[in-house]
Design brief:
alpha/beta
Length: 385
């Protein structure tokens, strides 16, 4: 498993990334909704899920009517479904998609609709219906069934939330991920700056660092070689030893993501240049990166960054923070680690054992030892001291 495969294996869906705190529809869209409501009303099955599955198999285009009923954007739907299809298996234990779990590939809404007219369509109908049911479709649908056609049209003309709300949510998820990684470094015993980042991730502006001298400088500085970072890790002498960049994309990273990845490459070159002159105390670049949105342009964003990060962590692999800090000699005390059996396969466990656990001098175990000082939950693992 290479770095990119590890990223996709452990990638987190939008709802797993912690939060720190419309436009009009044309007549054809409303007509489609009314058609779906009418079909459901006349074809109710024994269970609600079975009713939705039958509706989807009858008309795969009902996908768009249902997601609009729930206020779910097209992009949100296909990224969520990309993740669910990526981790799901059939009743026989076979993967729903052809690609391996290590090789996530984004699929469009139209692609998912197409699965409902092919061999194995029942499995896809079940997966998609479960997604809609988990988003409270039954309660919302029952409410709409009691409304007149005119009232349904009026409501749906103003259904979709303004884009600004979605952007704010994405921003707050990014800050939530920043707080989580800061907490992980703090729990590992590392010296972090800003000192309260794990408590109030939005309290201070990201610190600027002169990468030629590895000194924190004022925010007014704009000289070449000065960049801002979400978190700085210092050693016992107060010297900078690691710089953390957080880039969380639950949706399309767009040109911003491409530009940030290019900036990351430039930053690593400056760090390497500094390390060449200061081999006694090298500085490391750590990425806090996650989100299915990177599947929109992996080669232009996440693949490029993973190629230059000295290490990277995700929501599900926050345990790597403690392991990497211990490997570098910046913290100590972790003796064992237990990886979650319901998340990591045997092959994945072996990958983490060789690449991250053994280099930190830590033992991978399956059960808690008879005696230990403390345990810390970090992503999908338990660090034991």
């Amino acid at each position: 498993m290479n770095k990119l495969q590890e990223f996709w294996y452990c990638v987190a869906p939008q709802n797993d990334i912690p939060l720190y705190r419309g436009e009009a529809l044309d007549d054809s869209v409303v007509t489609g909704l009314l058609t779906f409501l009418d079909y459901y009303r006349n074809n109710i099955q024994e269970t609600f899920s079975e009713s939705i599955q039958k509706a989807l198999l009858h008309n795969p285009n009902f996908i768009n009517d249902i997601r609009l009923l729930l206020g779910i954007s097209d992009k949100r739907f296909y990224l969520d479904m990309t993740y669910l299809a990526h981790i799901s298996t059939t009743a026989n234990g076979e993967r729903l998609v052809a690609e391996k779990r290590e090789d996530l590939i984004k699929h469009s809404t139209a692609w998912f609709a197409g699965r409902l007219s092919r061999q194995g369509k029942e499995e896809w109908a079940k997966l998609i219906s479960e997604y809609f049911v988990s988003n409270d479709l039954e309660q919302i649908l029952n409410a709409f069934l009691s409304l007149s056609e005119d009232l349904v049209k009026e409501i749906f003309d103003n259904l979709i939330a303004p884009k600004e709300i979605q952007q704010k949510q994405a921003k707050y998820r990014g800050h939530g991920a920043e707080q989580l990684v800061a907490q992980s470094f703090y729990d590992a015993g590392a010296t972090i700056y800003p000192e309260s980042k794990h408590l109030t991730p939005m309290a201070e502006r990201d610190p600027n660092v002169n990468l030629s001298t590895m000194e924190i400088v004022s925010h007014e500085s704009a000289a070449a070689g000065i960049h801002s970072f979400d978190l700085i890790i210092k050693d016992a002498d107060g010297d900078i030893r690691a710089l953390v960049q957080s880039l969380i994309h639950t949706s399309d990273p767009g040109q911003y993501g491409v530009n940030k990845s290019d900036e990351t490459v430039d930053i690593k070159k400056l760090i390497d240049r500094y390390n060449g002159s200061h081999p006694e105390k090298p500085v490391y670049l750590i990425g806090n990166v996650d989100g299915v949105g990177f599947s929109e342009n992996p080669n232009g964003t996440i693949a490029k960054m993973l190629g230059v990060f000295d290490s990277f962590v995700q929501i599900n692999t926050m345990f790597k923070v403690g392991l990497y800090m211990q490997q570098l000699g910046l913290t100590s005390g972790i003796r064992y680690i237990m990886l979650d059996d319901d998340y990591f396969s045997a092959e994945a466990k072996e990958h983490f054992k060789q690449k991250h656990i053994e280099p930190a001098g830590v033992e991978l175990i399956d059960e808690l030892p008879c005696s230990y000082e403390k345990s810390v939950r970090a992503g999908r693992a338990l660090l034991i001291y």
